Amino acid sequence: MADPKHLDQITERVERLLLRHEELQRTNSLLVEQVHALQAERDSLKSRLMAARARIDALLDRLPPGMVNADLDTRKERS
How far apart are the C-alpha atoms of 45 and 67, rounded to whole Å? Predict the structure, then answer.
């Protein structure tokens, strides 16, 4: 039969491992939540960026032809 002291040590180690496993599961769940939140924020920022680009493109389309290139040339000369 196994030594009671040895069984107690094994039991203690198993209990510590189980606690550690539970802690890691909780930590993993929190990290998964953070990943989902960051993905949602990223998607929102992408959407806002695309909307802003669309507005800028619409404004550029309203400018008279040649105005955009002339404005860019003027900015390069100032730099």
Answer: 30
In this structure, what are the phi and psi dihedrals at residue 65, rounded to the nearest 5 degrees? -55, 140
End-to-end CA distance of the chain: 87
Candidates 8, 53, 34; CA nearest to 61 is 53
pLDDT tens-place string over residues 26-79: 999 999 999 999 999 999 999 999 999 999 999 999 998 877 666 666 666 665
Q: Tokens in use for 71?
A: 């404005």
The H or E element that residue 10 is part of is helix 4-62
Cα–Cα distances (Å) from 64 to 5, 20, 61, in that order, read 89, 67, 8
* Amino acid identity, position 52: A
